[in-house]
Write a structure and sequence with these properties.
The complex is a heterodimer. By secondary structure, chain A is an alpha+beta fold. In chain A, 54% of the residues lie in helices and 21% in strands. Chain A contains 14 helices and 19 strands. Classes of the chains: A alpha+beta, B alpha+beta.
Chain lengths: 531, 304
């Protein structure tokens, strides 16, 4: 008997000591730093520490379409350079386009030229009629597949770069399924700004302004084929009003954000406004040099996501590979713009399909209320057990405290995430924890009534209630595990605390309490039991 | 020895017809509520229906109808408002109608900032759920309910004989449906946390049922009574105190959560607390009588 008691008591002592070592770092920060750093900790969910949860849908079809339209524009430009007129250009599905040529001997020459100069596209010649000929261009299946496969991982990479530069501790950015991305930013304070930073496509383009085109005509819808109508956004610094001015630019970008080597925020000393200075890579610098040389005294529009930020006049050839993006920026806006330019553009636009943001104050409030509810709940349960089962109740209460301690230790060990529903799970587990002891104690009372000795009653009570306790726990465990499988973040937290609490309860209620009774009986057989 | 319930000898089997009538009526209404939910005529949370929910704390006191006026004038007459007056907190919800995207958090915040310029607000939380995600969460929730029901029946069928398993499963179904009926009747919001409460109650209400069934099985083996009804009556009376006390301790914990846990968990803990009461009732008045009716009065041994 003693041997068995000693063995069980040692196990409990070791578990308890280990639990205290595991739990302390999550509770206080006055411990030696080596202990604090090495020990696994309970993480707080976004609902408790505040933060942003975003689910984004990457519009991959848009990425394919954009690439496709670029190819179409290129093809037309190539043909025009060779003196082959193109009457019309149209989209054909998301990964194909068609060019209409005038009648005559153009068709064969055009096809040959395109095949030579634009290798990655499949070109086929449609029927040649008296009214003209059509050439169909289509992206290869492999290229479409590659875009599909890479769009999400590229977007994840880009968003990670942006977030890293924005400065968030322990961000989580993962792809989900075929076209989704989940972003979690714990503890981020300026939430709206972070969301905007992530959602921006940030496609930067330099486009020449078409000085010959009339803005009035363009507003009516009469636009030359290779022009487009954009708006220049201006914020009045006095009253914060946004002005939008139409401007006609060439569709074809002379340079894009891909050529940017680095970008940083600068301040104009006299006006105090912020602007973003960019420097191009070698190839970009060469192109910029040529374009500025060819277009002195004309305007160059700086376009981000189809909005013109500024359209300065090129005063002289710019050879250093340096440029400035001015506009009416606040310092934060300029800093965010520099971040997205450094991190690069997203391969496709993203749409926010789920946004859960919790402010830090609500998180703190939730923790306080959760802890208070847990304390009160535990006090009620502990008080009731003392009142109803007297001495046996004391044993059950001590077991309950061990139960909570082991639960917190288990969560630390697994580095589990504690959420607000998770706190509810702990409170519920406290209520359920004493159930096992109630079942056992009621059984012992029954045995005592049938005039058995105290010791025999205790043994019979534990023995006969065992399967009832197990059965009643298993069903709760089953549902908790299913919740864990299907639940979203906060609810997963509930499933974790509830299932661990209930599972640990089997040990504390059946083993921990029994060893106390066994010890008391082994010392001197009990004559009476306060239960 | 302190006892709340001393040796009782209530004739539960005599009461079963009243219980069946009551439960039958509530379950019928619950099924109607389920039908209403699926036809989109229930108060579904935005995490299941899609939409926007935001919690705003005003610095000074503000009247509900003032907030309503500002939100309505801003183009959201269908928004639902909920308030915690003593903390000047408002929860504003705009659900998505149909497939329409309703990511309007920033817009509503802007309306409040303009509408109450002299009463600064802190946005404590924003949740925006697109219809696609709402749909996914909805199917996930239904799937979870189906899987857990199946798993519980399989476990019970393995641990008890088939008829006990089915009776326990029916009682669990009864508990869950009754909870839906009450929430529908009260017009309370049904969200993911409510589904979580349903699943939890589904698991927990079996605790009491298992306690009663274990005792019935034991008493059949010991042949303490001659008929099955009498055996059930004896068993239920014998374990009545522990059935009530186990529920009571868990109920106390839920009440602490309901009263002190804050607004986010309020409906969740209400569902749990109600579910515990319903689960206790059903293990006595629903599960056992079903077994009695199905098995007849023969005292056949129950397999273990």
């Amino acid at each position: 008997m003693w041997k068995s008691i000693g063995w069980r008591a040692t196990l409990i002592a070791v578990l308890t000591a280990a639990s205290i070592v595991l739990v302390l770092p999550s509770m206080t920060d006055i411990l030696p730093s080596a202990w604090m750093e090495k020990s696994p900790k309970i993480h707080l969910g976004l609902d408790l520490q505040g933060g942003v949860f975003l689910r984004l849908a990457v519009e991959i079809d848009k990425a394919i379409e954009n690439t496709n339209m670029r190819y179409a524009d290129d093809a037309r430009a190539i043909l025009r350079e060779k003196g082959i007129p193109v009457l019309a250009m149209a989209k054909d599905g998301i990964s194909g386009f068609s060019l209409t040529l005038p009648p005559g001997e153009f068709a064969d020459r055009a096809l040959r030229t395109l095949k030579e100069e634009a290798g990655t596209i499949d070109y086929t010649l449609g029927p040649v009629t008296s009214s003209g000929a059509a050439i169909r261009g289509g992206m290869t299946e492999n290229e479409v597949k590659a875009i599909r496969a890479n769009a999400v991982s590229q977007a994840v990479e880009t968003i990670r770069n942006r977030i890293d530069q924005f400065g968030v501790r322990e961000p989580q950015i993962v792809a989900e399924g075929e076209d989704r991305i989940v972003v979690q930013l714990p503890g981020v304070k300026d939430q709206q700004r972070a969301i905007e930073l992530i959602g921006k496509t940030a496609l930067l383009e330099f486009k020449l302004v078409d000085e010959g085109a009339s803005v009035e005509e363009a507003l009516k819808g009469n636009l030359p084929d290779d022009d487009q109508l954009l708006y220049e956004k201006n914020v009045d610094p006095q009253n914060g009003r946004v002005n939008r001015r139409p401007i006609v630019v060439k569709k074809r970008a002379v340079l894009t954000g891909e050529s940017i080597k680095t970008a940083r925020v600068n301040f104009q000393s006299q006006r105090g406004g912020a602007y973003v200075g960019i420097s191009f890579d070698n190839r970009g610098a060469q192109i910029f040099d040529r374009v500025t040389a060819e277009n002195v005294k004309r305007r160059l529009a700086i376009v981000l996501d189809d909005t013109v930020y500024s359209a300065p006049v090129i005063q002289e050839r710019i050879s250093g590979g340096e440029a400035q993006i001015t506009g009416s920026f606040t310092p934060e806006e300029a800093s965010d713009l520099a971040i997205v330019l450094r991190a690069g553009s997203l391969p496709a636009p993203v749409k926010i399909i789920q946004n859960v943001s919790v402010g830090p104050s609500l998180g703190r409030d939730s923790i306080q209320k959760g802890i208070r509810a847990a304390m009160i709940g535990a006090a009620l349960v502990v008080g009731f057990m003392l009142f109803y089962y007297r001495f046996a109740g004391v044993i059950a209460d001590v077991a309950l405290i061990f139960n909570i301690l082991y639960l917190l230790a288990g969560m630390s060990l697994l580095e589990a995430t504690l959420t607000l529903p998770g706190i509810a799970g702990i409170i519920l587990a406290i209520g359920m924890a004493v159930d096992s002891n109630v079942l056992i104690f009621e059984r012992i009372r029954e045995e005592l009534r049938s005039k058995k000795t105290v010791r025999a009653s205790i043994d019979a009570g534990y023995d006969k209630a065992f399967w009832t306790v197990v059965d009643s726990h298993v069903t709760t465990l089953i549902t908790a595990m299913i919740l864990f499988q299907f639940g979203t973040g906060p609810i997963k937290g509930f499933a974790v605390t509830l299932s661990m609490g209930v599972a640990i309860n089997l040990f504390t209620a059946l083993v921990c309490t029994k060893v106390v009774f066994d010890y008391l009986n082994a010392r001197r057989p009990m004559q009476a039991l306060s239960i | 020895m302190f006892e709340i319930i001393k040796n009782t000898s209530i004739d539960f089997m005599q009461l079963k017809k009243y219980a069946f009538f009551f439960s039958g009526a509530v379950v019928a209404f619950g099924l109607f509520a389920v039908f209403q939910i699926f036809s989109g005529r229930a108060n579904l949370g935005i995490d299941l229906a899609g939409g926007t929910s935001l919690q705003v704390r005003f610095e000074q006191q503000v009247q509900m109808d003032q907030v309503r006026k500002v939100v309505t004038a801003g183009g959201f007459p269908e928004a639902s408002l909920q308030s915690v007056p003593e903390e000047n907190i408002y929860i504003i919800k705009v659900s998505a109608k149909g497939e329409e995207e309703k990511m309007v958090g920033e817009k509503v915040v802007g309306l409040l900032r303009q509408g109450f310029p002299s009463n600064p607000q802190t946005v404590e939380s924003i949740a925006e759920i697109g219809p696609a995600i709402g749909k996914k969460l909805r199917t996930d929730a239904l799937f979870a309910l189906a899987v857990s029901a199946t798993a519980i029946i399989l476990y019970l069928a393995w641990r008890f004989e088939f008829k006990f398993g089915v009776a326990a499963a029916l009682a669990t179904f009864h508990d869950v449906i009754m909870l839906v009926a009450i929430f529908y009747l009260l017009g309370r919001e049904m969200d993911l946390l409510f589904i979580t409460a349903l699943l939890t109650i589904g698991g927990y209400s079996l605790t009491d049922t298992v306690v009663v069934f274990d005792r019935i099985r034991e008493n059949i083996r010991l042949r303490k009574r001659n008929t099955f009804s009498e055996t059930i009556n004896l068993s239920v009376n014998e374990v009545l105190s522990r059935t009530v006390i186990t529920s009571l301790t868990t109920f106390m914990a839920c009440m602490a959560l309901l009263l002190f846990g804050g607004i986010v968990l309020k409906d969740f803990s209400l569902a749990l607390a109600l579910g515990i009461i319903i689960g206790t009732y059903s293990s006595v008045f629903v599960a056992s009588p079903i077994v009695a009716i199905w098995r007849g009065e023969k005292m056949v041994q129950v397999k273990r």
